[in-house]
Known about the structure:
With 168 residues, the chain is of the alpha+beta class. It has a single domain (12-160), classed as Nuclear Transport Factor 2, Chain: A, CATH 3.10.450.50. The chain contains six helices and six strands, in the order ααααββαββββα. It has helices at 12-24, 28-31, 37-53, 60-63, 82-95, 155-160, and strands at residues 64-72, 79-80, 100-109, 112-122, 129-141, 144-152. The chain is globular and about 45 Å long. The termini are far apart. Residues 1-18 and 29-34 have low confidence and may be disordered.
Amino acid sequence: MQFRSAHGRTTQYAMVLLSASCLLTTPPEARAQSVSRTANETVVRRCADELWNKHKRAFIPMCYTTAYVSHTNGVTAPHKGLDAESEALAVTLNTWPDIKLTYEAVIVSGDFVTARWVMTAHHSLTAKEVDSHGITIFRLVNGKIAEDWTTFDRVPLIMAMEQVPGAS
């Protein structure tokens, strides 16, 4: 069941369900390493700001564990490790050099932080502005992001790259 706001966006209720499903599949021993709710939210917000808004790739080791794994919809295999995250960020910044990420809602549940976000940027070749909405669920271990799952609307990105028939 989906809950929709008056604007047609999935509401915070869906994020709670996503967070709960991740929490229920995590073994109790992994949840025992929990850092405080506030600390986990602070880590996620600071990493988003330093990496996606200030574009500081050198900040990656402060945000992620060495065994970090990122799962993204539409990507055939997750990328793993700090080098893979650095490369992913470099490719993204090359394509969207003025990217900004804004969290619209954040829910914390133990070692999990779920964020509903909007990404705003201009494509490096077409200069078309794009807004893409998404949700990321982060799993933290000892104050760093160990794993995340992201889903987002790719259509605005594709249209900005003029790959959709009829895109202007």
